[in-house]
Amino acid sequence: MVLAATNRPLELDETLLRRLPEAFEIGMPDRKEKAEILKVALKRERDIFELCKKATYFPIREILEEEGNGRPCRVPRPLSQLDLEKGLDWIRRKFLLRRRRRKLQQVSIVG
Length: 111
Description:
This protein is mostly helical. The chain contains four helices and no strands.
């Protein structure tokens, strides 16, 4: 069985549509379903907390850089989607570095 999903059904290629003859529309989740999705996401609450914490540092760093360049302090700008994406990228790199260190430690112990 092959299952495919898209949020852009009108952009699907005709060849793909021929190979997947059945189509089911699944609507947007209601308030209760959204709460359930959030509960699942929050099972990894620590990761979400770390991401938000990391994202809040970016506007603060901008203020510190401005002050370092002799510009007066201003109010931090609001967080943006880009801040969250940069925070997520930082967390991913940190995770990859940890994984590499563990592998190196395993190699040095074995080797």
